[in-house]
Design a protein that fits this description.
Elements (H helix, E strand, L loop, with lengths): L8 H7 L2 E10 L9 E8 L2 E9 L9 H7 L3 H7 L3 H14 L5 E6 L2 H16 L10 E3 H9 L8 H8 L10 H17 L3
Parallel strand pairs: 1-4, 4-5
Antiparallel strand pairs: 1-2, 2-3
Helix pairs in contact: 4-5, 7-8
C-alpha cells in the first residue's frame, strides 16, 4: 500500500493480464549488425485492434539479395524514406511500453530465436534497453505447440499449426505487420484449444 492507502503500483501491475505481443521481422541478411532489420511488425494476441508497424533505414551497406527479395521491400526506397533505426526503435519501444496500461507485454515470435535476435539487438543497440526485458526472452510458437500437443519439432511449422487449427484462410505475406497479426491470431487460437 502507498502512504495514501491506495494499492501500490507493483500490486496493480502484477494484477494485469499478460499481453502476448506477436513480433515479426523482415531483414536483408542472417544476423543483425552486419545486416539490417528492414521492417518490424507487432500485434497483440486476442486484441486485433492493437498493432504496430515500421520500416527501417538499413544500417549497413551489406545485404543478401535473396533475403531482401523475401520482403519485397525496395532497399533504395528504404535508404531514402524509412526512419533511421534510432527513431524506429524508439517508436517501437514507446508502443510496447504504452501497452503496460492494459497488461504485461510478453514477446512472442515464430521462431523466437531469429526474430528475437534482431529485435533484442536493435532495441539494445539503438535505445539502450529492450522493453521486453534484459534477456529479450519470450514465447516461441513452435515450442509452445510442441508442449501443448506432445508432437515433434518437425510438426511445428506455422503452416502445419494453422492447418491443424483450421486457420487455412490466414495468409503469410512476408509483410511484417501482416505476419505479426497472423501470428497473434494463430497463438490466440492455440491458447483457446482445450488441453
Amino acid at each position: 500500500m502507498d502512504r495514501d492507502g491506495s494499492p501500490s503500483e507493483a500490486v496493480q501491475v502484477a494484477d494485469l493480464p499478460e499481453l502476448y505481443v506477436a513480433v515479426d521481422v523482415e531483414a536483408d541478411g542472417p544476423i543483425p549488425g552486419p545486416y539490417s532489420m528492414i521492417s518490424l511488425g507487432m500485434a497483440v494476441a486476442g486484441r486485433p485492434e492493437l498493432g504496430f508497424y515500421t520500416e527501417l533505414r538499413p544500417i549497413s551497406d551489406d545485404f543478401v539479395p535473396q533475403a531482401l527479395a523475401v520482403s519485397g521491400l525496395d532497399r533504395d526506397r528504404l535508404l531514402r524514406e524509412a526512419p533511421p533505426a534510432e527513431e524506429a526503435m524508439a517508436a517501437a519501444a514507446s508502443w510496447v511500453n504504452g501497452l503496460r496500461r492494459q497488461g504485461r507485454p510478453v514477446f512472442l515470435a515464430a521462431p523466437a530465436v531469429w526474430d528475437g535476435m534482431f529485435v533484442h539487438w536493435y532495441f539494445v543497440r539503438f535505445t539502450g534497453r529492450s522493453p521486453f526485458g534484459a534477456t529479450g526472452s519470450g514465447v516461441d510458437l513452435r515450442s509452445y505447440w510442441m508442449g501443448r500437443t506432445g508432437g515433434e519439432w518437425s510438426g511445428t511449422h506455422k503452416g502445419k499449426i494453422k492447418h491443424a487449427l483450421g486457420l487455412t484462410d490466414i495468409p503469410h505475406t512476408h509483410h511484417a505487420g501482416e505476419d505479426a497479426a497472423e501470428l497473434a491470431q494463430v497463438f490466440d487460437a492455440v491458447r483457446r484449444q482445450p488441453r
